[in-house]
Amino acid sequence: MNEVVSQEAFVKIGIIGAGHIGGNVARQAVRAGHEVVVSFSRDPETLRAFAAELGGQAVAGTPREAVTGAELTVLSVPWSIVDIALEQAGSLDGTLMVDTTNHFGPGPGPVAGQTSAAFNAARMPGARYTKSFNTLTAGFQAQVVDRPVEDRVVQWICGDDPSAKELLAAFIDSLGYLPIDLGGLADCAVMESPRRPGSVYGEEYRRADAEAVVAAVRAGQPIPPTPSYS
């Protein structure tokens, strides 16, 4: 089984960047009963208004506050300002970071043969780095969150910290998605942008087809053709 779900209870979820993807994660986290701190906006009043709209136990704060005491913190900012967001977050020692970013736009990037995930993990020394929520649009993620268990849509996970991935999987499950562990940072290429043949980026997956992808990646083989669902 590649789905790893624990029953860990989450008390506080940090969000750095409450735009499309980060905003949807925040919305679904509040809906699932988690405490949420949204942060990192050029307009603090807009951030406070968004927290008020979310209701529940949602508050606006700083990136440092989104990290401090959080069970996990979601980084969801444009690639070009990742370093600015991380600088404002401060020390990430022991922090479970969930990176949703994709390598679009200006800014430093991975070298040949290096995944974007591996590059970003190196920018977060001391963090328990994971990658997820980056393959589907925010609109689609919001649209499919209420599906029955048997039809749940996959949120891929990669990272080199098994226990961090277990905690992230429990969080993803609590939101209403299907967590599937793709592997380590070196295996992330198939879930990274851009949308292209031989990748899962931009595509919907459900359990059986996702498990076939994991098997192919672990065998060093091309992944199966993109599935289509009625």
Describe it.
With 230 residues, this protein is α/β, with parallel strands linked by helices. The protein has a single domain (12-219), classed as 3-Layer(aba) Sandwich (Rossmann fold), CATH 3.40.50. Helices cover 33% and strands 16% of the residues. It contains eight helices and eight strands. The chain has helices spanning 20-31, 44-54, 63-67, 82-89, 116-122, 138-144, 162-175, 207-219; strands spanning 12-16, 35-39, 58-61, 72-75, 96-99, 128-131, 154-158, 178-183. The protein has a six-stranded parallel beta sheet, sandwiched between helices. α1 (20-31) packs parallel to α6. The longest helix has 14 residues, at 162-175. It starts with 11 loop residues before the first strand and ends in an 11-residue tail after the last helix. Residues 1-9 have low confidence and may be disordered.
In terms of structural class, how would the helical and strand content be classed?
Answer: alpha/beta
Outline type:
globular
- The figure for the number of domains is 1
What's the total count of β strands?
A: 8
**Rounded radius of gyration (Å):** 16 Å
Under CATH, the homologous superfamily reads NAD(P)-binding Rossmann-like Domain
CATH topology value = Rossmann fold
Low-confidence stretches: 1-9
Count of helices? 8
- What's the order of the H and E elements? EHEHEHEHEHEHEHEH
Main pleated-sheet profile? 6 strands, parallel
Overall pLDDT metric: 95
Strand order of the largest sheet: 3-2-1-4-5-6
> First CA to last CA: what distance?
25 Å
CATH architecture label: 3-Layer(aba) Sandwich
Helix content: 25-40%
Please report which band the strand proportion falls in: under 5%, 5-15%, 15-25%, 25-35%, 35-45% or over 45%: 15-25%
- Under the CATH scheme, which class? Alpha Beta
Oligomer: single chain
